[in-house]
Amino acid sequence: MFIDIVRFTRYGDNAALKEAVRALENTISDVLESLEWDIEDQDNDAVMLPTGDGYGIGFAADIPDGHVLSYAAEISNKLKERGFPVRIGINTGPCFVYKDLNGRLNLTGWGIVDAERSMSCGEKDHIICTAAFAEPYNLSKSDRSIHDIGVYKIKGRSLHLYNYYSEEFGNNAAPQQNKVHKRRKKTVRKSGKKKARKKPRKG
User: Fold this and answer.
1) Quick one: which of 9, 55, 76, 165 has the fewest CB in 10 Å?
2) Which DSSP category does 95 fall into?
3) If DSSP codes are grouped into helix, strand and coil, which group holds residue 31?
4) What is the pTM assigned to this prediction?
């Protein structure tokens, strides 16, 4: 999962920026209260990757996809109520945990990269899922809140995306940035008139 605060720079001064970041961190901590993360030398439920105006979150494989979607909807709604709308991207894929130069647990791999790229297509209150996440989940649960919105291209990589929303959460408008629009084929209309045959000339 990848989360960022929409139009973060509009908050302007340092006090407003700090308030937005504090609201984000407190909300994530509250929603994921039952999970353990960033604890060294043991298996974690999640790994947190702060980005300044957001978070990348890698969940353990045994955390159900339905829980991940519930976390996303709850985080989105709580921050919306506090006046700090976010956009969220969700993907399933390989993530590798390692210690960075500060000695903290960090993430890399297509799992988190495509979560960030799907998020970057979204706008205010969007929860955007990749096909890698949405399609297997839909086959098992048939969740009507997951809506196919087609193919998007981000940094040269095409991703088939789904929009997660209902009347209670999310944004039901399909995002337009990075959308791949199908080109319409040109059709050549044939004239109904038959061409007159030329009569052979006598020599």
Assistant:
1) 9
2) -
3) helix
4) 0.84
Q: Say what angle helices 14-31 and 65-81 make with each other, to 10 degrees.
A: 140
How far is the C-alpha of 172 from the C-alpha of 167, rounded, in Å? 9
- With cut-offs at 50, 70 and 90, classify the pLDDT of residue 100: confident
Structural domains in the chain, sorted by start? 2-164 (3.30.70.1230)
Dihedral sign, Cα of residue 178, residue 89, residue 54, residue 38: negative
In one letter, which amino acid is 35?
L
More reliable by pLDDT, 11 or 102:
102
Q: Report yes or no: 150 and 179 within 8 Å, Cβ to Cβ.
A: yes
H/E run at residue 68: helix 65-81
For residue 23, give the 3-state DSSP assignment: helix
Reduced to 3 states (helix: H, G, I; strand: E, B; else coil), residue 63 is coil
Distance in angstroms (rounded) separating the CA atoms of residues 136 and 122: 22
